[in-house]
Amino acid sequence: MTQKITVVENILNANDRLAQENFNRIEKAGVFSINILASPGAGKTSLIEKTLPLLKDKLRVAAIDGDIATSIDSDRAAAAGALAAIQINTGGDCHLDAVMLHGALDQLDLTQYDLLIVENVGNLVCPANFKLGTHKTILVASVPEGDDKPYKYPGTYRGVDVLVINKIDLLPYVNFRMDYFGRGVQVLNPGVKTFRTSCTTGEGLDDWADWLIEQAKS
Ligand SMILES: Nc1nc2c(ncn2[C@@H]2O[C@H](COP(=O)(O)OP(=O)(O)OP(=O)(O)O)[C@@H](O)[C@H]2O)c(=O)[nH]1
Ligand SMILES: [Mg+2]
Question: Which ligand 1 atom is the nearest neighbour of the CA of 198?
């Protein structure tokens, strides 16, 4: 049992070292980078799709999409205006890791972009354990998932820099207690920067896009 824990620690340490290398590379190129985490279907790709037109003529964006299979998400990002869109197929792994991002970065001339968006594999557990080397980690939580998710997935909620509460257009139809959800978030990640968005109505997307522009320009 002790041996097993040691192995896991070694893997994570190796990942962290490569994540630092990725970070140095991204930083040197002057690109602002985000890693988007969420459960399957929370709206990660929809958020990217709806944000890209708002960034047009303001930021040059590259997207890297992690998925177990298919290139559906990178195709959507490219169609929405990403100047480069790379799909990482994890071959069954439930998360991206720093090695995978490293391989994807090899395919990009980072100096050509202002913003790098990485969409992680849809999963609320594993991606939180693997640093990639991006500047900020964004968690997309969607209303139909339920208001208990901060309580059930504390590791993910604790570690993120920004929370996007998506699908707020569904609030009238779903039993989602925003105050209960918010209390759970507050305990784990006090004062975390939060946006409320709907990729269907467009509500909240301007604020989110403005924040990205501000971060990328600073
Ligand atoms: N009502 C509503 N539906 C949304 C919203 N955002 C996304 N959706 C829908 O939610 C479904 C999943 O959206 P995706 O953007 O593919 O979600 P994802 O997180 O990228 O999914 P995976 O990559 O498979 O994990 C789609 O049917 C979207 O149209 C929203 O704000 N409101
Ligand atoms: Mg997606």
Answer: 31
